[in-house]
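Regression check, S-adenosylmethionine case 298:
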Amino acid sequence: MSTSASQQADLDPASFRAIADLAYRESGLTLVQEKSSMIQSRLRHRLRDLGLADFAAYCSLVQSDAGQGERRNLISALTTNVSHFFRESHHFDVLRAELDRHLPKLRAGGQLRIWSAGCSNGQEALSAAMTLLDHVPDVARLDLRILATDIDPEVVQFARKATYPERLVRGISPDMLKKYFDQTTEAGHEPSYIAKPVLTDVIRVNELNLLSPWPMRKRFDIIFCRNVVIYFDQRTQEKLWPSFLNALAPDGVLLLGHSERIAEPERYGFTCTGPTTYRPCHALKSTARPEKQKQSEG
Ligand SMILES: C[S@@+](CC[C@H](N)C(=O)[O-])C[C@H]1O[C@@H](n2cnc3c(N)ncnc32)[C@H](O)[C@@H]1O
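Current build output:
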């Protein structure tokens, strides 16, 4: 099978349907026909690496028992992993306020648990760690843990290395970059920045498909799940809201991405307390105050 043949293979409608069905079943990703050429170009390198002539052969593989490993590569190729440091910065204000609120409990031996669900290359978890450390410098000595998870094994590997080329660290201020990263230059690679242990020691990175059972036993005080459910249809989103409610501490907070909403949050036990900021309903009476700009649900 020549490289150029697989590079020119077209994604025929039947193969598109088979791949879209499989992606939906395995990961919740909804692929629309208009994205067919993007999907074709993302998957052509898989055909080339596997020596397959066309998408029909690729579909036979990923639909077979022997195709389990390749199904992970397929999902990895289909995910959109765009992220950057301190994205949607208003949520880091919420994080600081949450730390202030939890600090007495933390200093008395309690825990603070944060989850970056759909963490991509790790920028969200590292931004959270920098925010907390900058706000309360000794917080790393307290019982603080950040779990970062993603379905895509490639970004999980990347996040574990916590090493970012210059173009990816632009959202970090020069002061923070100096304080929390070391510069490294591996032979043949562009200059990069590696997160210092003070950050990485509080972060654990794992592979996790949000559509599979969640193995975490402890509840989280803060969950970031930003710019992830936008790739899911309403049915999948509606299946996830109860799981998030269940994974949150009673006075916890769930942060979604700027174009994501829980439609009718009360139906799922949530109240919207700020821009894409949700808390369990019962928490409002006791602890949570509406954040400044109350968001209207549309
Ligand atoms: C656009 S990135 C968002 C990264 C980060 N949360 C942010 O806002 O910058 C979306 C991430 O969701 C992950 N993802 C998509 N479907 C998923 C699923 N079913 N389970 C877990 N992660 C998923 C993708 O692999 C991708 O890394």
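Comparison notes: The mean pLDDT is 93. The longest helix spans residues 90-107. No diff flagged against the previous build.
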